[in-house]
Design goal:
By secondary structure, the chain is mostly helical. The protein is about 70% helix and about 0% strand. Helix 2 runs antiparallel to helix 3, helix 7 runs antiparallel to helix 8 and helix 8 crosses helix 9.
Amino acid sequence: MTEARYRADGLDAAWPLLAGLAWLAPARCAALLPGLGDASLDALRRRFDAEFPGTGEIDDYSWFPAWLLVVKPALAGRLGDARTQRDRAASRATALLGEILRREHDGDQHELVSLRQALSRLHAGLFDVYMATRKVQHR
């Protein structure tokens, strides 16, 4: 179904289904991505393979949607359309990152602390990647 949506309507329309596939069947998601032949998606997949602080196992792909929100926050709207799987930590992390991005935009610092702590509990490595994108260097 994910591939059919991609072929019919393009990557933008397929993001929610790709997220669901990653959460429910990470091995199938990892196998599908190169088969789609999408240059931008292939670049993201290669970057994920190189940068994601996971175990190096195929199940790391369940975290691909959450990682995408860290490196491409503009996808929050599309990935936010995916049906959250509450019994899957990676799915909860994706939803949590979407909320964090909204709170950052609104400037709600108090709530951000709590949300960031929750993200850290779900996946410390992903949290570290996220925080690295938020650090400001002073000169």
